[in-house]
Each structure stands twice: as structure tokens, then as C-alpha cells.
Design brief:
It is a single chain. The protein has about 700 residues and is α/β, with parallel strands linked by helices. The protein has 3 domains: about 220 residues, Serine Threonine Protein Phosphatase 5, Tetratricopeptide repeat (Alpha Horseshoe); about 180 residues, Response regulator (Rossmann fold, 3-Layer(aba) Sandwich); about 150 residues, 3-Layer(aba) Sandwich (Rossmann fold). It contains 27 helices and 19 strands. The strands form 4 sheets. A 7-stranded mixed beta sheet has the order 10-9-11-12-13-17-18, sandwiched between helices. Strands 5-4-6-7-8 form a 5-stranded parallel beta sheet, sandwiched between helices. Strands 14-15-16-19 form a 4-stranded antiparallel beta sheet. Strand 17 and strand 18 form a beta hairpin.
Length: about 700
């Protein structure tokens, strides 16, 4: 008989197969060299003992063959159970899940009362899970759980928890983490489990999952961890979706059931928060502005507009006049959130104006939605009103400017083709995207777009690229004339002069009707002369000027364009610095102090009387925002914040300094913008037909 490489026992098996014969015997040679006759079971036991001593020193790959040989010889003996368990564990270690499952299943079939039965059932379940046969795996593990000892229960519960996570069932995983926590006695291990469960709940359970897990653990009779955690989490979800009554009930149940829970103090604070947020002083309007720090000048200007709009300087204030409570955000998001909470929970404000700066606006908007307080922001950044039901904006937006500019260019000027020259910063890129989207929506065509560095001083390269004077090798007229010069002129100096003359006379390829420059006046004052240097002519209605330009340029026809931009153009210094180069430029604004609109003129007069200076767009929008809230407080008289939100959504054509303002269903202000142009030495307003200049923001 072939002997195993893992044992030094020499066995000569003599089997007598006859009815009524005694059990088969095996002649073996023990470690002392003595031969003796033993039963097959005894021989298997001796050989397994020797093999078992060798296995720990062998790699997993090398354990497989001797174990399989042992089972071939002694598969019907009691020792086979140990060999099957060892072979199953080896396959498990090697990741051969199918082979591991077969050995474990054989143990459970052939040795149902054996010492390895429970271990085999666990290994079988995990192997099946690794094979993706979840429906077979997890019931197998659960079926043996009640038969396990405390330590084994902890081990199997951990396997079940991780297996359920692997198969995407976090709620079931929580149940087994609860069992693992129950049967784990080491404090450090319990803390690790608790951290694992917190991560599981935060990362994998939505509202429905938290609620399902909470009900499942209650029905399973689990009274400790993590039931308390789920109860508190459920209360916080109710709070964040503004179901305050259910949040209150859940918090009260949590505190009653888990008075010593680590989260009990936070639950108590949340209960008090619910009580405080329900208190509203219908006259109090909170104000969040950066009155210190980098943006203090903007905050100060906005505050003056708010004070004027709220009627602070009126000689007689009625009994329903609003009360302003002002807080300084310093331009800091965390401070803005803290100040907003103070305005709502301590001052009981019915609505809040601000903030202005992008980062603090986003942070405050999220907190306003959580607190359920209307927040009317003064921020230009995209997407602010979309942050929540209680978030509004009354300020000039890039989208509103793009809508008006493109509409006017296409409907009034007859333009179809556009070019864009923009700074490569957030303002330039976002404004360009809005312009491009609006052009596409109206089926216009963007013929070119070039950018420049935000701190650029030389604009010739991007302008040349727009009009075909940069990549000259692509122009057949240039290449043809250059080749002629090279052929006919032999003198280097003559060639040089001829090339200079060629470049000077090379006409720009102006294949667009409008050039948008989404930047501020200081850059436009440099760009406009650079356009003239490249012989790009701004549109003019002056016949004598057109004839003079034709003569000076030697052309029979001029390809004139419109120079257009946004509110950044709206500064008298543009005219002072660029003079004739910006004549006829068209741009929009959120406010124009010299407008003939009655409401605008009234605001400008009142502001000059109060502060002895000219107001800007910031003061105008802040004024209108405060005036709108004042009107609602005094006339509509909402008694809670939800009524104030509905009242704001109901505002229609409020005639203010910045135009007739309405709020859309998304909380974005819709109003009449100002369309402006440079005429001679001043900025003038372009009169528009009624209803043509309303835009969101």
C-alpha cells in the first residue's frame, strides 16, 4: 500500500471481507519500529495525529494533497471529520469557495453530531456568500446561531453582519451587529463595533432604512445598542425634514427609554431647539452682513440700503413697523450659521436678509432650510435658491444678464452670430456659460470664444485669434502674398518691410455680429482700444463716421460689430478711461442711478438725503429686499415663518429701486433689468418696450 509523505507509519492492511468476520485489521509499525495489528479507525487516528502535527508548518497549497490522500484511505473513519475540516479550512484560506463548500457540506452530512458541525455550517454559509449564492448562505449561518456558545455567537454574528453588508443589506447587518455587540465582552472591541455601526448608519441607511432597522430591532426584542442610536437618528431625520411633531415625539421616547445614553444631552438640546424655533416675533427681521473683515465695505453699503428700506429713518413708525436685528458674519461661513441660529432661536426673527458672500451664503442657506426660516440672500452665485424651500434671492444674477443681452441682440439688433472674449476666472467662465446657453437656446451661433488671464494687460493675442490674425498659416490670402514676397524680393530689408506692410494691411476676419466681454470696466477700458488696433469697428449710426472709416481703411464695406457686456461695464470710469473706443457699447445693469423710472428716482433721492452720496446696485437691492419684507410685515401680517415664505412667493411686481420685482416658485427674483449704452461722454439708459426686459434675478 502507498504510504503518505506526511507520516512515518508503515501500514499493511489485511482486510477479511466475510459475513460475521471481525472488523478489518491493519498491521502498522509504530514510532519505535514495533509491528502491531490495529483496527482501521485506530490506524486512521494514529496517522491523523502524525499528519496534524505536520500541517501547521506547511503552506496552504502544500496541505491540500496529503489531506486528500488521507481522505481517500480513511474517508469512512471517525478521523475523516478532522481531515475534512482541515481541508475545508485550507480551501477557505485559498479562496477556493466551491471546494470549501463541498468539504463543509460533507461534514454536515456525514458527521451531524460531530465536533466540527457548527464550524462547518459557518464556513459553508460564508463560502456560499462568496460564491454569490446569498439565498443559500445566510439562512445556513442563521440556522446554527442559536446552538452556539457565547464566543461562537460573537464570531458568527460578526460574519453575518459583514456578509449582509457585502450583499447590500445594511438593515439585516445592523441586526447582527447588535448580536455581536451583545456577545462581545471586551470594552475596546465593543467600542470598535459601535464606531462601525455609526458609520454603517451614516453611509448606508436613508430615512426608510433607519426606520425599518429601528422597527426590526424593536420586534426582535433588542433593547440596547444600537436601538438608542437608531431612535435618535430617526428623530433627527424627522427634524431635518421639518416634521417637528414627530421629531418631538421621537425625542421624548428616546430620552424616556435611554436616559443615560451618550446622546441624551444632545436630544434634550434638540427638544429645546424645537420649542424655541416655534416662537416667532412677526415684526423682527434679522440681518446677516459682513460688517467686518474683507467684505466690510459691501456689508456697510448693503446695511444702509436695508435701513432705508425698512423705514428706520421715517419720522413716524406704525405699530406694525418691522424691527431690524443686525448680526455681523465677518464673511465667515461658520459665524454666519451661528448668527442665523441666534436670530431664529433667541431673537425669534420671522425672516432674515443676507448673507452676501458666496461661502457664507451656501452655509446659511442650508441652516435656514433646517430652521425653517425665510432667508432672502444678496448673493450673485449660481444655484442659491435651489438649496431649499425657504431660500430666496433678490440680486442681479449672471443668467438674468445673459437672457436680456442675448434677447436684445437677437430681437432688436438682428444679431445671429456671436463671439466671446472672457477672463479665465469664475466670473468670466460662469458668465460665458450662461451667454452660450442662451445663444444656443435661441438658435444663435457662437463663432469664437477666447479667454485671457485675469491679470492680463495685453489683449492682442486673444483678439487676433478671434479675427484670424494669429494663426496666419491658416489664411490663404496671407500665405499667397507671403510667398510672392519671398519670390520677388531678394533683399532681407526689403522683405522685412514688405512683411510689415502685409501684416498691417491684413484685414481681420469678422464673422460675428456681437462681441461679448463678460468682465469689469477696468479691463474693458483696455480691451476696447485693442479692438481698434486690430481694425475691429464698433457699430455706429453716424454716416459721416462710417464714410471716414471707409476712407481711412481703404474699404468699400465695414464689418461693424456691437460690443456688449454685463453689469461690470456700468461705471462712469469706463467712459472716462476708454472715451471714443466704447462709444455705442451696450450693457445691462441691476441698477442705474440716473434712470427715469419713478421708483428708482424716489429711492435715489431718499438715499442722497439720508447718506449724502450716490447709491450703487448693492444699496438698491438691499433697499428693495427690506422694503418688500416691510410691506409684508405691515400689510400681509404673517404670524409664522411658513406664512412669511408663502407671502414672499406671492410678491408680484413690487415697484422698487431695481425694477418691478416678483418671486418665482424657486425663490428667484424676477425683475426688470436696466439696459444701458455709452453715448458721447455719458452712460444712458435704453428705453425698452414694456415687458421685454423682465428676467430671473
Amino acid at each position: 500500500m502507498k504510504t503518505s509523505d506526511c507520516t512515518r507509519l508503515a501500514a499493511l492492511v489485511v482486510l477479511v471481507a466475510c459475513s460475521g468476520c471481525p472488523a478489518p485489521k491493519v498491521v502498522v509499525t509504530d514510532e519505535h519500529g514495533r509491528r502491531k495489528e490495529v483496527t482501521v479507525d485506530e490506524a486512521a487516528r494514529l496517522e491523523w495525529k502524525a499528519l496534524a502535527n505536520k500541517l501547521p508548518s506547511m503552506s496552504a497549497e502544500k496541505r491540500v494533497e496529503p489531506l486528500r490522500e488521507f481522505l481517500q484511505r480513511y474517508g469512512d473513519t471517525k478521523a475523516a471529520e478532522h481531515a475534512l475540516a482541515a481541508l475545508g479550512d485550507t480551501y477557505f484560506e485559498l479562496g477556493r469557495w466551491q471546494d470549501a463548500a463541498e468539504q463543509c457540506r460533507r461534514i454536515m452530512t456525514d458527521f451531524p453530531g460531530g465536533t466540527h458541525y457548527i464550524h462547518a455550517a459557518v464556513r459553508l454559509g460564508v463560502s456560499l456568500a462568496r460564491l454569490g449564492r446569498t439565498s443559500e448562505a445566510l439562512p445556513t449561518l442563521q440556522s446554527v446561531f442559536g446552538s452556539l456558545g457565547k464566543e461562537q455567537k460573537a464570531e458568527v454574528a460578526g460574519m453575518l453582519a459583514e456578509s449582509y453588508i457585502d450583499v447590500g443589506q445594511p438593515v439585516e447587518a445592523l441586526r447582527w451587529f447588535a448580536e455581536l455587540h451583545r456577545y462581545t465582552g471586551v470594552a475596546g472591541a465593543r467600542q470598535a463595533i459601535e464606531r462601525r455601526v455609526v458609520d454603517l448608519i451614516d453611509e448606508h441607511l436613508d430615512f426608510t432604512g433607519v426606520r425599518k432597522a429601528y422597527e426590526m430591532l424593536r420586534q426582535a426584542g433588542i433593547e440596547g445598542f444600537p436601538l438608542g442610536l437608531l431612535s435618535f437618528k430617526l428623530a433627527k431625520i424627522f427634524y431635518h425634514i421639518l416634521d417637528l411633531e414627530r421629531a418631538r415625539g421621537q425625542l421624548e421616547d428616546f430620552i424616556a427609554a435611554f436616559p443615560d445614553h451618550p446622546l441624551a444631552a444632545e436630544a434634550g438640546n434638540l427638544l429645546r431647539l424645537i420649542d424655541e424655533r416655534g416662537k416667532v416675533d412677526r415684526r423682527v427681521i434679522g440681518v446677516l452682513l459682513p460688517l467686518s473683515g474683507e467684505y466690510r465695505e459691501y456689508g456697510r453699503r448693503a446695511l444702509e440700503g436695508i435701513q432705508l428700506g425698512a423705514g428706520i429713518f421715517d419720522s413716524k413708525a406704525g405699530p406694525d413697523a418691522p424691527l431690524l436685528v443686525i448680526r455681523d458674519t465677518a464673511g465667515d461661513p461658520d459665524r454666519a450659521v451661528a448668527m442665523l441660529e441666534e436670530l431664529v432661536l433667541q431673537e425669534h426673527a420671522i425672516a432674515v436678509i443676507g448673507p452676501m458672500v458666496a461661502k457664507e451664503t451656501y452655509a446659511a442657506a442650508m441652516k435656514a432650510e433646517e430652521l425653517g426660516v425665510p432667508l432672502v440672500t444678496l448673493s450673485i452665485r449660481k444655484g442659491v435658491p435651489g438649496l431649499g424651500r425657504f431660500v430666496f434671492r433678490n440680486f442681479l444674477t449672471l443668467r438674468a444678464q445673459a437672457e436680456l443681452l442675448v434677447r436684445y441682440a437677437m430681437e432688436k439688433l438682428g444679431a445671429k452670430r456671436f463671439a466671446i472674449l472672457y477672463p479665465n476666472d469664475w466670473y468670466g467662465v460662469e458668465f460665458t456659460n450662461e451667454l452660450w446657453d442662451e445663444i444656443d437656446r435661441r438658435q444663435g451661433e457662437v463663432r469664437g470664444a477666447e479667454h485671457y488671464a485675469p491679470d492680463a494687460k495685453n489683449f492682442a493675442p486673444p483678439i487676433k485669434k478671434l479675427v484670424g490674425k494669429y494663426y496666419l498659416e491658416a489664411r490663404w490670402d496671407f500665405v499667397r502674398e507671403r510667398d510672392r514676397i519671398r519670390r520677388e524680393i531678394k533683399s532681407p530689408l526689403g522683405r522685412k518691410r514688405a512683411m510689415e506692410k502685409l501684416l498691417k494691411k491684413l484685414r481681420p476676419v469678422v464673422d460675428f455680429d456681437v462681441l461679448f466681454v463678460p468682465d469689469y470696466f477696468d479691463k474693458v477700458a483696455l480691451i476696447a482700444p485693442a479692438l481698434a488696433v486690430e481694425d475691429i469697428i464698433l457699430h455706429t449710426d453716424s454716416k459721416w463716421k462710417i464714410e471716414r472709416l471707409k476712407k481711412s481703411l481703404g474699404r468699400n464695406r465695414l464689418d461693424m460689430i456691437y460690443l456688449m457686456g454685463g453689469n461690470g461695464f456700468n461705471d462712469e470710469r469706463l467712459v472716462q478711461w476708454a472715451e471714443r473706443y466704447v462709444q455705442g457699447a451696450i450693457f445691462c445693469g441691476g441698477f442705474f442711478a440716473r434712470s427715469k423710472r419713478p421708483a428708482t428716482r424716489l429711492f435715489v433721492g431718499r438715499f442722497r438725503a439720508a447718506f449724502d452720496r450716490e447709491p450703487s446696485m448693492v444699496e438698491a437691492h438691499a433697499y428693495d429686499t427690506a422694503a418688500i419684507l416691510r410691506m409684508l410685515v405691515e400689510k400681509v401680517k404673517p404670524v409664522d415663518r411658513e406664512q412669511m415664505r408663502e407671502a414672499l412667493l406671492g410678491v408680484r411686481e413690487f415697484d422698487g429701486a431695481t425694477g418691478k420685482t416678483s418671486f418665482g416658485p424657486d425663490g428667484e427674483a424676477q425683475k426688470e433689468l436696466f439696459l444701458l449704452t455709452v453715448k458721447k461722454d455719458a452712460i444712458e439708459e435704453i428705453e425698452l418696450e414694456h415687458g421685454t426686459d423682465a428676467a430671473s434675478g
